[in-house]
């Protein structure tokens, strides 16, 4: 991981060269795209509905089968948007904290750590409260993040981006095997957890959303308030400290926000990967590297990506559906390979 402040100064100055009106237009475009995708999510599925049925469902009517189908899709659409926003924002924060372009809640094993914690709590400790899933998932996500970072710092060169990615991939694979080992002997929980482990937003309800909303709100607030500190960290630890930033505290607070978002998202929708990898890189191309713009844009684009993945999964496999975890993996895996093959990418 690069720590020199002098080499990172040109990157830190990059946001100033991007006019604020241009970035504001991109943010407005992201809001409009998200609104269009959420509308499409209400309209498309196993049962075809008309736009009049969609607007009637939004208004609270469900007197026909088509309107009832659209009504059921409303909480699913909201859940996809909030989970996508959480994962996109968490990915941007993780990349800023580690200054690692390969950082992602899935690649670093954070989501799978949360998944293993939830499965273990249900199988061995009888956890049944959905609200309890969030606390357990956050604890698992935090332990996984600490473990991967510790392993990635071993050896010469410290925690380089590639070492962290390899440590995270190995940890995620090991945790996935442990999840399977825990679930297979338990026929009473195996069916539900197999579907949950893929990652999806089917069967969403507003009660389910309400259980994770306070945690997501806290995570969003912590991450967005860390934007200035992340800009300082991008200069390098020495220069950031010279500018008055408490480097360890800034990293810890920002990482806490990302862990809270990952834990809540995994508890609600399972371990969905690659959203936190694809979204921040796309956002940097559009609004630059200033985290004051990057973080809210990552949340909007993450919401749009996961909503689009849910719509695609319902359309291509109609009358069945592909879970969003499968769709995001199909999109994110080639993107990950492309990032790794870029020889000039070392750190953010």
Automatic annotation (TrEMBL):
Species for this entry: Streptomyces lycii
Entry-linked Gene3D superfamilies: ABC transporter involved in vitamin B12 uptake, BtuC (1.10.3470.10)
Keywords on record: Cell membrane, Membrane, Transmembrane, Transmembrane helix, Transport
Membrane-crossing segments per the record: 74-94, 106-127, 133-152, 164-185, 205-227, 248-273, 293-312, 324-341
Coiled-coil parts of chain: none
Topology relative to the membrane: Multi-pass membrane protein
Lineage: Bacteria, Bacillati, Actinomycetota, Actinomycetes, Kitasatosporales
Entry superkingdom: Bacteria
CDD domains: TM_ABC_iron-siderophores_like
Subcellular localization, as worded in the UniProt entry: Cell membrane
Main location: membrane
SUPFAM superfamilies referenced in this protein's UniProt entry, alphabetically: ABC transporter involved in vitamin B12 uptake, BtuC
Pfam families: FecCD
Protein name (record): Iron ABC transporter permease
Similarity annotation: Belongs to the binding-protein-dependent transport system permease family. FecCD subfamily.
Keyword DNA-binding tagged: no
């Amino acid at each position: 991981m690069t720590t020199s402040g002098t080499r990172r100064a040109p990157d830190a100055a990059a946001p100033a060269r991007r006019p604020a009106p241009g970035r504001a237009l991109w943010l407005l475009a992201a809001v409009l795209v998200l609104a269009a995708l959420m509308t499409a999510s209400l309209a498309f599925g196993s049962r075809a509905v008309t736009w009049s049925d969609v607007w009637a469902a939004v208004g609270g009517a469900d007197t026909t089968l088509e309107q009832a189908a659209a009504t059921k899709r409303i909480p699913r659409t909201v859940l996809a948007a909030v989970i996508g926003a959480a994962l996109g924002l968490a990915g941007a924060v993780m990349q800023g904290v580690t200054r690692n372009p390969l950082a992602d809640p899935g690649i670093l094993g954070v989501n799978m750590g949360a998944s293993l914690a939830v499965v273990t709590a249900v199988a061995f400790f009888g956890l049944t409260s959905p609200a309890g899933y969030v606390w357990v998932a956050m604890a698992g996500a935090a332990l996984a993040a600490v473990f991967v970072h510790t392993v990635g710092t071993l050896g010469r060169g410290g925690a380089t981006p590639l070492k962290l990615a390899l440590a995270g991939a190995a940890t995620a694979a090991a945790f996935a095997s442990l999840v399977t080992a825990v679930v297979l002997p338990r026929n009473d929980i195996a069916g539900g957890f197999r579907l949950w482990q893929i990652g999806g937003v089917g069967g969403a309800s507003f009660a389910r959303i309400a259980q994770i909303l306070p945690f997501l709100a806290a995570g969003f607030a912590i991450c967005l308030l860390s934007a200035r500190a992340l800009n300082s960290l991008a200069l390098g630890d020495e220069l950031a400290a010279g500018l008055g930033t408490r480097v360890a505290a800034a990293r810890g607070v920002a990482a806490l926000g990302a862990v809270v978002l990952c834990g809540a998202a995994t508890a609600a929708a399972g371990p969905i990967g690659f959203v936190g990898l694809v979204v921040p890189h796309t956002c940097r191309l559009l609004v630059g590297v200033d985290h004051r713009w990057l973080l809210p844009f990552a949340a909007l684009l993450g919401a749009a990506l996961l909503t689009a993945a849910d719509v695609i999964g319902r359309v291509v496999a109609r009358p069945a559906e592909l879970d969003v975890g499968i769709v995001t993996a199909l999109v994110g895996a080639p993107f990950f390979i492309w990032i790794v093959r870029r020889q000039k990418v070392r750190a953010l």
